[in-house]
Each structure stands twice: as structure tokens, then as C-alpha cells.
Design goal:
Blueprint lengths: L8 E12 L3 E12 L3 E5 L6 H9 L6 E6 L2 E2 L7 H6 L2 E4 L11 H10 L5 H14 L15 H14 L4 E5 L7 H16 L3 E5 L3 H4 L6 E5 L2 E3 L14
Parallel strand pairs: 3-8, 3-9, 6-7, 7-8
Antiparallel strand pairs: 1-2, 1-4, 4-5, 9-10
The structure holds adenosine-5'-triphosphate and magnesium ion.
Adenosine-5'-triphosphate binds next to strand 2 and helix 1.
């Protein structure tokens, strides 16, 4: 991926609809642009389509209608070597974790970096650095399948950011975490964002976005709606 010009979109979705067989309309007529370097939130009730939208962006699902472009590549047309090249630029923290339960924490995180042929020393250092940031260093050699859900969630997040991807998609990244650990995770995302990474966070957790200045998207039964004006109840905006 070349260095992008300012204000260019890393994600461009035009009128995308996703229908799961036989007739579940998970997303309907979605249009969305995400600028390089943006950090934004995706909210909406359970079943509104948040995970499906993240899966369209990372290419795990394809739209039945419409266009999804990531880093200028149309995901419906991308072929051959371009697919792994693009996937390396996207770090996905899955809602259901998708860890390998019989591998250690360190191996699960390192896996994301091995595809980019970094040296073993660099990988080990990065794994330790991320585990320290997420207060998980004592679990370095524990099997992922033996961790609590909150610990598994942090490993998923560490794996998503490990390779310093251009785009991070985080699906309910704080769903199993207490408020202090949520803060650690958000600090990690903020650090990634400051160094230029684009981050889209799907969340039910109002606490992580209500004070933020970042864009908040809201899905309602598969459609993007205008979120309620978050400034409306502040004293300066009172009638
Ligand atoms: N593989 C699938 N096959 C059929 N229907 C699906 C599939 N995946 C999701 N759905 C349906 O699509 C809709 C959107 O699901 P999705 O998982 O995107 O919602 P969500 O906003 O992420 O919900 P949650 O907040 O509970 O994670 C739901 O009605 C869901 O039941
Ligand atoms: Mg979901």
C-alpha cells in the first residue's frame, strides 16, 4: 500500500446490501467513506448489522449489491496475490475471538506477524510489548483456551494490532472487560491511531465513545442512520 494523499478514503462503501440466505437482510443500502487516519465508532442494537459491516470491510463476506473498496481495491474484483497483501494491512479483532485454543498467548499474537516475514527477535519483542500494555505479560506462555474471556479478548486485540496494520477493525473489543482494562485497550487503540492507523470500533459501550470527538455511526436494522446529536444535552446547546 503506497503512502496515501491527504483526505483519501481507505474504505469506500457504495450502496452495499448484504442478505444472508435465505432472506435475512443484514445490511441495506449502506454508503460510507472512512478517511485514512480516522478513528470512528459503529453502534447499534444487537442484530443491527455491525459485525456484518466489519466482515464486508475485511472481505470475509461479500455484498449482494453495491461496492466495497479498501485501499482503492474493489473487494469483489481483487485476485491472486493482492488478497493476502491487502489482508496484511487489516487487523481484525473478532467478536468471537477466533484464537487457537491449543497454542500459547504468545503464539497466537505472533501468528499475525509471521506472514510479514519479520525477524523472530522483532516478533518476540513486539509480543512482549503488547502483553505489557494490556497487563497480560504473566500469561505469555499460557494456552489461549485456558484464559478467561476478558483475557482472550485482550489477546485478540493484541493480535489485531501486532503487525501495525493500516486499518484496524475491532468488534466489541471491550465487551468482556472491566473499566480499567477497557481504558488500557482504548489507550492502545489511541496510540495506534496517533501513529496513523485507521480504526473502526463496533461497540455497545457508550462509555468509550460518548466523550470522544470522533465520528459515531449508528446502524438500525441494517441501515445507517444519523446518530442522536451527542451535544444536544450540553448546557451550551440548551434552548
Ligand atoms: N451467517 C449468518 N447467517 C444468517 N444470518 C446471519 C448470519 N450472520 C448474521 N446474521 C444475521 O444478520 C443480522 C446482523 O447480524 P450481526 O452479527 O451483523 O449483528 P450485530 O450488530 O453485530 O449484533 P451483536 O451486537 O449482537 O453482535 C442478524 O439478524 C443476524 O441474525
Ligand atoms: Mg456483532
Amino acid at each position: 500500500m503506497d503512502t496515501p494523499p491527504a483526505k483519501k478514503s481507505i474504505v469506500e462503501i457504495v450502496r452495499a446490501t448484504k442478505i444472508y440466505t435465505p432472506d435475512v437482510v443484514a445490511l441495506e443500502d449502506i454508503s460510507l467513506s472512512i478517511t485514512y487516519g480516522e478513528m470512528l465508532f459503529l453502534t447499534g442494537m444487537s442484530g443491527a448489522g455491525k459485525t456484518t459491516l466489519l466482515k464486508l470491510i475485511c472481505g470475509m463476506e461479500h455484498p449482494d449489491k453495491g461496492l466495497v473498496e479498501v485501499a482503492g481495491k474493489d473487494l469483489n474484483r481483487i485476485k491472486g496475490v493482492e488478497i493476502p497483501q491487502l489482508r496484511q494491512q487489516i487487523g481484525m479483532a473478532y467478536q468471537d475471538f477466533k484464537l487457537l485454543p491449543d497454542r500459547t498467548v504468545a503464539q497466537n499474537i505472533a501468528m499475525a506477524m509471521e506472514v510479514s516475514y519479520q525477524s523472530i527477535r522483532t516478533i518476540k519483542k513486539r509480543v512482549i510489548e503488547l502483553l505489557q500494555k494490556l497487563r497480560m505479560e504473566h500469561k505469555h506462555d499460557a494456552l489461549a483456551g485456558k484464559l478467561s474471556r476478558g483475557e482472550q479478548q485482550r489477546v485478540t486485540i493484541a493480535r489485531a494490532v501486532a503487525n501495525s496494520p493500516k486499518l484496524i477493525l475491532a468488534d466489541e473489543p471491550t465487551g468482556n472487560l472491566d473499566s480499567k482494562t477497557t481504558r488500557l485497550v482504548m489507550e492502545l487503540f489511541e496510540q495506534c491511531n496517533i501513529s496513523g492507523t485507521t480504526i473502526l470500533i463496533a461497540t455497545h459501550d457508550e462509555g468509550i465513545y460518548k466523550k470522544s470527538e470522533n465520528r459515531v455511526l449508528e446502524l438500525h436494522s441494517g441501515r445507517l442512520v444519523q446518530p442522536a446529536d451527542r451535544t444536544i444535552s450540553t448546557p451550551n446547546n440548551m434552548p
